[in-house]
Amino acid sequence: MRKRAAFAVLTAVAATAGLAVPGAHADDIVGDIQVDGVVVNGGANIVVDTADKTITVSVTATDPSGIWDADFYLWRGPDGTDPYYSADGVIDPNENITPADCVASSSTTSTCSKTFTFEPDWWLTNADAGTWKVQAQVWANDGSYTDRWAYTTTRLQRHSKLTVNASPEPIAKGRTLTITGKLTRANWDSLDHRGYTNQPVKLQFRKAGTTTYTTLKTVYTSSTGSLTATAPASADGYWRWNFAGTTTTPPAKATGDFVDVQ
């Protein structure tokens, strides 16, 4: 079952279970419960390769009566329109819906966590890369609660790889080196890696015995993600490509290729 069908089922499941649908209502706060912060994946972007990726979402909240429970929704799409989301931290509507795991740090404060799994081989598609919204709901023991349908955002990205090869090696000083490479990223539709087209990538050099790379030029990837550049061989050192990343793809740096200049 691909994404749209799967999430249509989840929407129905949520409605049947009385769960809130992101974007279908305004933020709601009752009582004096305080949310100190919502953290997704430890604060890092969610980078998914071609295998399943499980991440944790947590919230820390305080209420005089103590915290009872919490829930989260990860979703995307226009506000209130066709939201894609996991109803309760599980993608398969046939799985058991479980509450968040709440750990009290005091009589008034708890941190509640739940895991979410992104599955390229089942529902995730390339179009899902980008910004996702995070709805957080927290309940206190006295009935107080807070519900914000877009408390924060997170970025879902397609894992990237970058290679490099400098040749010939060894090479005589003053001769021309050819530096090639390829930038690829996970393709969630085909479950493999494909070239990332027309992306600016920096060619960098680090002289042997030093620790800092210097950018020599910027080259754009070809239709297959390939990179090619030339440079004079002036000293022993390491050559690499450096990609800054985009909203849908994380940064990538090739491991430096050492060239012996004679």
Structural notes for this entry:
The protein is mainly beta. Strands 1, 3, 5, 6, 9 and 10 form a six-stranded mixed beta sheet that branches. The protein has one helix at residues 3-17, and strands at residues 28-30, 34-40, 46-48, 53-62, 67-76, 84-85, 101-104, 109-118, 130-140, 145-158, 160-167, 176-187, 192-195, 200-207, 214-220, 226-232, 237-243, 252-253, 257-259.
Mean pLDDT: 85
Note the run of SSEs as H and E: HEEEEEEEEEEEEEEEEEEE
Structural class: mainly beta
Number of strands: 19
How would you summarize this macromolecular structure in one to three sentences?
This protein has 262 residues and is mostly beta strands.
Which features does this protein show?
elongated; six-stranded mixed sheet; five-stranded antiparallel sheet; 1 helix; disordered N terminus; 262 residues; single chain; mainly beta
